[in-house]
Every structure is written in C-alpha cells, then in structure tokens.
Sequence to fold (182 residues):
Amino acid sequence: MPHPAIFLDKDGTLIEDIPYNVDPDRITFTQGAIAALKLLSDYPLIVISNQSGVARGYFPESALIPVMQKIHSMLNEIGVELCDFYYCPHLAHCNCRKPKPGMLHQAALDHDIDLSQSWFFGVILKDVAAGRAAGCRSILIDNGNETEWQLQSDRLPHHIVSNLHEAAQIILAIRQPSLQRL
Ligand SMILES: [Zn+2]
Fold:
C-alpha cells in the first residue's frame, strides 16, 4: 500500500543554511529540528535538495557524499532514521531541480509513497511549488529565506510557520482526529 511521507528541503529547513557548504563539520540542525524529527519519526523522512553548486563548479558531486553521511549520522544520534536523500546537481534543463517535482516522483517510485497524503516542508516558495506540482501538501517555514513572495496559486503554501517544530505540530494535529476514530 502506498503510504505518506514527509519531504524536507535541506538548507534552511533541516540544517542551518550556509550557502554551498559541503564541510560536514559546519552542518548543524535548524532551530526546532530535533524536536520536530522525533515527533515525525514514524513517517519516512526524505530530504529533497537542489545542489546547483555541482553544476556551478563550486564543488564536485562526490563532495555531497560526506554531507549526506553527516546528516544520516546526526539523525541517528537522536534516534531518527532518514529514509532517503535526493539531490539535483543541475542548474537547468532537468526535471529534478525544484520547483520541478522530479525528485518527489522518483522518491514515490522508490519507496511506494502516496504523494497526495504526503507533505513537503521548505523555506522558499520553489519548495512549495515542487510539492504542489507533485500533489503534496506543503508547509513553508518562513525564516527569512524567501524574499520575493510571488504567491501565485501554484506556489501557495498550505500552512506558514516559523520553524520545523511548528510544522511537525501541524502534521500531528491534522492526523489526530483520524487516530481518535480508530
Ligand atoms: Zn536536476
């Protein structure tokens, strides 16, 4: 049976945003992330990240391996398993760079995910647009990353919060009524 998942943008959503950083030692969780991830740990948690630093020549694609390993191990340390990690190394002419939904479609195929029951958490409206294009609901964490605020209907968040913990609380509040009916 296809099941819901939580998709997370990486930079600014899951970890503090240091542009084009690939040094594992500089990776830290965002505010509220640890509590949020513990609350959501029974969902498959999947990172969806644009990594155009590869296409721009800022770092080789292989530099992303220690980044992914570090994030996996940071999550392991708090008892949370990361289901998978997808990144787009391109800058243009692909189907995966957000706001395109290609990474979400691939994740759905790989992990038997029901996108209509899934959520995308991000910090810019391109994240929201990718989630919406894949049929997911979306939560925008408004922490200052989005500056243009072009709120067309295909980029409109279902909820706007100030950190990942608040996003997790929304998911649990929405889920609760159905649990009570059991
Ligand atoms: Zn791509």
Observations:
- Residues 164-180 form the longest helix (17 residues).
